[in-house]
Amino acid sequence: MIANQRLVASDGYEVALFPLPYLYMTQDEGGNFTHLGTYNIDLIGYKPNANAPVYAPCTMKVVQYATGFAAGNRVTFQSVDKVHLPNGALDYLTIGFAHDPHPPITAMGAEVQQGALCYHTGAYGQVTGDHTHTCAGQGTFIGYTLRETGHWDLANRIHYWDAVFVNDTQIIQGYNHNWQNWEGSVEPTPKGSGKKRKFPFVVAWNHWGYKH
Fold first, then answer.
1. Backbone angles phi, psi at 210, to 5 degrees
2. Which residues is 79 bridged to in the sheet?
3. How far apart are CA 4 and CA 93, in angstroms?
4. What is the DSSP letter of 47?
């Protein structure tokens, strides 16, 4: 997605979008280090490739801020309303980002509109280079789970390509996953979000213990 991009389906629900203008993966899920046995992936920017902007894939709310070096200043968001996902679901989206030295939005409950700046790539924490360590989940936030490999990811994890569409995203390195564009009908003028807030947010303070 690009800055300030909005995409709302004709039913009034937002379409979840990939959070950077370029899809440039440097480590796949299940890979080495903190990705072993998890659905975590690493993303970098491309023009610029450092301190690159990360945009809200949908209108979201902060549900956890794990501050400090060990956690990499991880901010976890949950969509305010249900959104359309590439796996065909209309459900809440949970998504976490790590390694920004100065996250722009950290206050519990703070909302950010789809397409607005919500994070940056960075090198804060135990990292080897500038990127964001990220994972997506389907449904309301229920915390992080320690997998058998000793690494953490979202308890309600889903593959990233099942979580966000890549409309207006340039794919540089996507590891040949099934990235999809939203091809359904859309509202001609997005109306904003927050119309269907039916469920309370669940906050769990599990830490994402990892080392790159």
1. -155, 165
2. 60
3. 19
4. S
Lowest mean pLDDT among 3-7, 44-48, 108-112: 44-48
Q: Which strand (E) or helix (H) includes residue 80? A: none
Handedness of CA 75, 114, 109, 137 (dihedral sign): negative
Q: b or e along 97-108 (b: 16 or more beta carbons within 10 Å of the residue's beta carbon)?
A: bbbbeebebbee
Which token pair is 104?
Answer: 């722009």
As a CATH number, domain 22-173 is 2.70.70.10
Higher pLDDT among residues 177 and 32, named by residue: 177
Amino acid identity for residue 155 in this structure: A
Whether the model clears a pTM of 0.90, i.e. scores above it, the answer is no
Average pLDDT, the chain: 90
Tell me the domain boundaries of the chain: 22-173
Of 51, 194, 14, 3, the residue nearest 109 (C-alpha): 194
pLDDT of residue 196: 43
Q: Give 176's contacts (C-beta < 8 A, 6+ positions apart).
A: none
